[in-house]
Specification:
It is built from eleven helices and seven strands. The strands form two sheets. It has a four-stranded parallel β-sheet, sandwiched between helices. Strands 5-6-7 form a three-stranded parallel β-sheet.
Length: 211
């Protein structure tokens, strides 16, 4: 399957022909990771559809979109799993999933579950000045960071926006030298120190392995 990051950002990933008994409704930013995990582990019982990744720019859209996706597919699957953490919904997504009787990934956001929620929680107080990127966000840096903040039009605003940040942490899911080089450039563009942590899939893999 050929995946376009632009498509995953703007349109998500439509459901292919049904093959499995469990449907994962995920953020488009997790599509590659979930498909890689499926392939590596032979999880043929899992099907995947993704909502647009750019809903993270408008998190108030996420809960209703998940509700609609669950309603659309519920009768076709034995189980549905929501591959989102809270992701800025202020607890509304968790409440909706509980109401709908579907499970979701624990944690506040993907940076936490990639790192491992327990480990992230233990260190978060010491990293309040840290800006995080994942593989997807490195590839889509302009679409998610530069353009929404207007830095393509007003680069002089960078130092104001990031005045309270000290470093950029790149949480890599894959070992890709080209992405690592791009992540370093992202840190330079934001005027931040750079740190690389290879997290792999973290708690995402654990959550999916239990389905």
């Amino acid at each position: 399957m050929t995946l376009s990051d632009t498509q995953l950002t703007e349109a998500g990933l439509p459901l292919a022909a049904q093959q499995g008994r469990v449907l994962i409704i995920a953020c488009g930013a997790l599509a590659r990771e979930i498909l890689d995990l499926k392939a590596a582990n032979g999880w043929t019982h899992l099907d995947l559809t993704c909502l647009p990744a750019n809903y993270h720019l408008y998190p108030d859209k996420i809960t209703d979109a998940v509700r609609n996706a669950v309603a659309k597919h519920r009768d076709s699957y034995a189980d549905i799993f929501v591959a989102y953490a809270d992701c800025g919904t202020g607890g509304h997504l968790q409440a909706a999933c509980k109401e709908l009787g579907v499970q979701m990934i624990a944690g506040p956001h993907c940076y936490s579950f990639f790192e491992g929620n327990d480990r992230f929680a233990a260190s978060s107080a010491d990293e309040i000045t840290t800006f995080y990127l994942t593989d997807f966000l490195v590839r889509q840096f302009d679409a998610f960071i530069i353009k929404p903040m207007g830095l393509d039009r007003h680069p002089e605003l960078r130092d104001m926006y990031f005045a309270n940040y000290e470093k950029l942490v790149y949480q890599s899911q894959t070992e890709d030298p080209a992405l690592l080089a791009r992540a370093k450039i992202c840190a330079d563009r934001l005027g931040l120190a750079f740190e690389h942590r290879h997290t792999g899939y973290g708690d995402l893999k654990t959550a999916l392995s239990n389905l």
